[in-house]
Design a protein that fits this description.
25% of the residues lie in helices and 38% in strands. By secondary structure, it is of the alpha+beta class. It is globular, with a radius of gyration of 12 Å.
Length: 93
C-alpha cells in the first residue's frame, strides 16, 4: 500500500470519480481511497487525482506521477520528496 523508494514513496490508490468533492477518504482493500469530483473522461480524473494527492501531501504537482492504472480505478502512484511515515501521518489526520 505505502512503500518507501529511494526518491520518495509508491502508493496504491483506489479512485472514486464523480464524488461530491475531492478528498482523501481513508483505506479500503489495502489502498488509499481518494474521492474525486472530476468524471473519468479524457484524463480529467487522473489530473484531479494528481492535484488532490499533491495538495494533501504538500508537494508540487510535478512530484506526483501515475505509474500504472491510468484507465482503472485502482492506480499506483509515485510521490517524490516524502516518506512513508509522512503519508501514514496524513492518513490519520
Amino acid at each position: 500500500m505505502i512503500r518507501d523508494t529511494p526518491t520518495g514513496v509508491e502508493l496504491d490508490v483506489r479512485v472514486i470519480p464523480r464524488a461530491r468533492k475531492s478528498e482523501q477518504a481513508g483505506l479500503r482493500d489495502n489502498a488509499i481511497v481518494v474521492r474525486l469530483a472530476a468524471p473519468p473522461v479524457e484524463g480529467a480524473a487522473n489530473d484531479a487525482l494528481v492535484a488532490c494527492v499533491a495538495e494533501w501531501l504538500g508537494v508540487p504537482r510535478r512530484a506526483v506521477c501515475i505509474l500504472s492504472g491510468e484507465r482503472s480505478r485502482r492506480k499506483r502512484l509515485s510521490v517524490t520528496g516524502v516518506t512513508a511515515d509522512l503519508v501514514r501521518t496524513r492518513l490519520r489526520q
